[in-house]
Amino acid sequence: MFRNFRSKVTLACLLGLMALILWINRKSPRLTDFGPLQQVKTIAYVLGITIGATIFSQFTTGTMRDLYLQILENPLRRIEVSSSDEADSAATGIHIHQDSVAKLDAKWRVVLRLSTFYETVRLFAARDPETRSKLFIFISYIIFSLLTTSIITTLTPFTFNRRLDYPMTIPDATYGEYLNESDHPCAGMAVSDESKAEVEKSSTFLGWQLNNGSLFYGTFDASWCPQSRAISLAAGIHPRHPDDYAYVDSGVAVHQTALGAPAAIYNGSQFQNFLNTYVMSLMSTTQCVPVMTSNPVQCQTGGKAEVLNKSQLYIESASGDCYYTQTVNTRNLYKDALMVSIMCSTHDINATQADIGRAVMAFGALTDAQGKVAWASDLAQAINDPDPNAGKAPNSTYAVTCTVDPQKVFEYRSVTLERFTPGKSNSSAYAFFLVGGEPCTPVNSTISNILFVTATMANWNIIRENFAFDGYFSTISKAAGKNRSKPYAFPNSRNAMEDVLGLISAMVVANLRVSGKGVVADAIQDKGGRAYAIVQATRIGTHKWYGLLLIIPPLCCTFILCWLLQSNWRRSWIAGGVVYEGPSEDEPKDKRSGLLAGESIYELMSIGQSAGTGSQSAPLLATQSDRSESN
Question: CA 440, 446, 447 angle in degrees (round to 5)?
Fold first, then answer.
């Protein structure tokens, strides 16, 4: 009765294990909300499931072994020679006994896992049905041993990426009005006549006089404006391999698909708070933001650079609407080198919305009288002039005109900030990597005049570098190099100089501050969806389809047990329970009720005594025993 109960319990446990595997593979319950399981807890957890899996596997394997022994019970008890006919016993009993013992001995050794390595290998080489049955027993043990692996793998902690909604805030599209010289936004509107007059007379402002009477302006001198930091930001440009990453800002490498994406993504207070909470578990954030998809600056040879006298150099753009005369009393332009540059808005009166941000830049350079300080040549090589001698001759001049049109260079993309992971395509080795993805449609649009004017004003300090000294474009020259060919960061860049100027525009635009509450960088649901973060956490199970393969071992074990139960029920196996009497009357009698013959040495001795009662059988048993000892 106990044996039947044990078999039923084992089957129930196997069914429960299969249900558990299915449930875990579907639900994958979390062990942590974020981060890995603590080391001590991990050790205790793994140790516990290993011990439990081992006990379970041993229990089920014992049930299988018990059922195999039940199959051998009847043949084992019938190997004794029949005593009904002494003649038949003498003539045929010995042959039957020898054959039965040889077959049962081989099976019994496999069931009890006593086979040698050589015997096990022979199982796979033989082809007769008797050996195949022994091979099936051997394979059954292998399948049952896989239960431990199946349980441990199912319950092992796995790290996974968990998605969390992340309300990332970026600068909005609102702008304020100019109030006075010390209180004004970096880019905004001047409405009153007094404020417009102050803007127009200031040398640090650039304005677009709209046909409705208002003036939209941008400035570069206010310390709170990102364009005032253009030169320091330009140090992060990566000119050698811009296709790996275009520039570095706040320790984040920015890919060319995410140029100009708001720096609030990686240095804003929201991100810092999120990072402080999740620390190393934070893997990435994704949000819908405006990026600069093409270069707003286009530079080419053209314009005028002319020495008026020994202290004045005149420059003029190719269109003639932007010009400037630089006076330098500390230099003799008949002997010394000089460089001058200037920026002008292309529509300073009667401008429309489509004109805001449009500007032109003029560069002029002069090589010294000896041809040793060839700044005109440096300017020519910055735009990849095909003439190798351009600007090298003594006292030669060179002019470049750059146009700026930021109106159509911005686009919304799902931008992802990734933590650096070795082995990924991110080859920057910086802590974080910003890369752009698919286009998206924002819930709140922020592409506005603020971005246009900021992109234009970004290069004011760059082109006015070393103003009133020698005017040399140190920052541009360092990043652009000389005749540097592709790849460039922007797909429409034609030379290194305009690529550098475009990157500076992108970096300055990215560093616009969030004024007021800003806007959440969410997209419309079917056009990108909500902003979110990926956080590493720990769960049970892989939550992958191949996790269902772990159900194969318990399923096979269930089939094997059912087959064994059915086979034993059909054979009506005989339970043990004979009485073994000691060799002397003083020794106690021992009754092993319910034990199989293969489980008890008393039962085996009893069978041996019963089989050895005949005159022919006893010598046979002795012969076989001696043969075993000699082996």
Answer: 85
